[in-house]
Predict the 3D structure of the following.
Amino acid sequence: MRSVGSTLADFEQDLISNLYYQRGTTLESASGSDGYQTLALTVRDRLVERYARTAAAHYEANPRFVYYLSAEYLLGRQLGQNLLYTDTERFVRPIAADLGVTLEDLESYDVEPGLGNGGLGRLAACLMDSMATLDIPAVGYGIRYEFGIFKQAFRDGAQVERPDDWTFYGNPWEFPAPDDRQVVGFYGTTAAALDDPTGLRRQWTPGEVVRGEPSHMLVPGYGTQTVNIIRLWQARASRQSFDLSRFGAGQYKEAVEDIVRAENISKVLYPDDSTEQGRELRLKQQYFLVACSLRDIIRRYRLRNTGWDAFPAKVVIQLNDTHPVMAVTELMRLLVDEYKLDWDLAWSITRRTFNYTCHTLLPEALETWPVAVVERLLPRHMEIIYAINHFFLQEVEATYPGDLDRLRRLSIIQEEPDKRVRMAHLAVVGSTAVNGVAELHTRLLAATTLRDFAELWPQKFHNVTNGVTPRRFVRLANPRLSELITERLGDESWLTDLDRLEGLAGVADDPAFLERWRAVKRANKVDLAAHVERSTGVVIDPDALCDVMIKRFHEYKRQHLKLLHVIMLFNRLREHPDLDVVPRTVLFGGKAAPGYHSMKLLLRLVNAVAETVNTDPVVSRRLKVVLPPDYNVTRAQWIIPAADLSEQISLAGKEASGTGNMKLALNGALTIGTLDGANIEIRDRVGADNFFLFGLDAQEAADLRRDYHPRAYYESDPDLRAAIDTIAAGTFAKGDRSLFAPVVDSMLGRDEYLALADYRAYLECQERVEHAWRDQEAWARMSVLNSARSGFFSSDRTVREYCDRIWRVEPVRVA
Ligand code: H2P
């Protein structure tokens, strides 16, 4: 095998060869897309070589592997990352320049795979990056959704969802692996296994089978040779599904019915679950993912190992949230029904294999499935769940004799108001370790959401605070800042040892350094202004305070609290045109789930406020509001480096961790935030003086919620009243008072997340922000200290903690 060379000449040679032999075209006739695809293939060749060496090293070492099961991966664009990780960007720039194109032109063809929703999917991508960087033998498993997270557009300010056909032009970064396809069953019937007197082993005859076709994306480590993979499954009909005779009879639609039904399984990320069919399809997806993945894991295990005793020593499976939790029952089914292990041994292996990460505190976000749906779709799994629950409740009964209420609370089956399977309970029962994603989150999980389990098994509960990869979110997103940091610290080793950023603290008082720090931020803001103008038509001032709130639209995150602040500023500026306020650009970014009507209305209100503010001749001189459409990883990489102020204003006790908060702090934004999620840990590290804290803490919020009257705040606070009245008066709806009435009603009626209670504190805190902003040098100093002290939030640290405390895996170096 010819190996890829490492010089500029080799690279150039490979480009030409890929252009001819892979794209089948010539330099003279190549399109821009050919250019991108050729470059991608040439970079990919370098990764493939490392991947082959990684696979060989793993085969040789036969180590314990981490298998990360996740319904979501938000990988971001691949080209820039892979150029960096193969150190080939230096070749591409001069070659591109010779051909009269820029790297940025080529990058514009690079489509990000949007196989996730928000923080959870992006966390999966950051952890995979860090595992490869730390040489941890790992495979990620997920679904190759044909359509990823919808593309967001706005029509009259309202969100419209367009399909994300992310592979339309082909995806040069993935490899199909058809030989590793798997067959998965659904529906059907079960019967007693004749050879099993205990009755615990049974036989399932599925009523429908589909194929899972795998392909994989390469996940390179930075500064190392390891390349791991994420294996993505796509559903295909079984081979006999095409009905030739019906087709011959002209029944074209019926002839492909089975094919369509099978392929629908991996058609879209999170099918709308407002209908019965939609809910069943989601469960089908989840089972499809775990069934394919477990078979693949067992296939890999058996390449080097025999017998089942060693399985947990070689295999550790991390369940990313409740979506893949059916894996617990599927492994039991495989071991008991198919490999004929006895129940107790199978259960002991299963429990030692799995671990579960919980990402929420909202009880409604912990999935439950109607027993009737599980029974129909996965009849054998429902039996296994009952059996697991039976033995588990015996255990509970032995520990707490006669405590029926506790049994009811702990049970995997919820009885009232309807019978449902509690997936989080199944996960906890079936796992060795359960972890939360920030200190407060883990503490509250154990004290509230999963309290009975924490009492039963305190040793199961761990905290592993989230982290983010500094390669993508500092080095790639913010090359200017990276250069300055490298110059200051002497080399690039901070990219894999992020605590080294501490070294910046020493120059936080050096006016010359601060000047350069500010120049970087300003240049980033000029770039962002260009992006914003292109996507919204709005011109923003790069010298204004850049105030950003970028995250999924959800009521607990409280985008409406931010909006009330904006409206207050608008009212003030209209009343006092000469008021001395700090010029500000408020930038929102995020999508609302297609069925989440109240948040979609809020998005519409944000756009309406933006329109009113930006076209007001007086107000718009000091205030701009923008909501660039289709917030995604690519756009996050544009926005984060330019941010001055990071809005982390969820109601305390509701945001599990947050990771945007970490990315922004690392890039020198100052946080305005509540004592929620990882905000607390950020504040502890960067220092209370360099963090704008406001609002109720988790305990105060829980206490207040018990007897809360939002209207009292409205009535006693004139600014708040004016802001809400401005909405109610139809100011942002051309006088139409009804359009946004539901927003007003929800605030004054229930205000689930206590935005009104925190309003005054938030406003006062924003005044402290303004005051601080007026001293630009002091602000820059705080900004430097935020970066300098955020090294803890590297996902390398997160992965090390998982390795030491939960996975107990060792790195394998690749030669
Ligand atoms: C969720 C949590 C975040 C957490 C993230 C990763 C589900 O992400 O809400 O608090 O940081 O998982 O653990 P998100 O809201 O962004 O979808």
Summary: DSSP finds 34 helices and 25 strands in the chain. The longest helix spans residues 32-61.
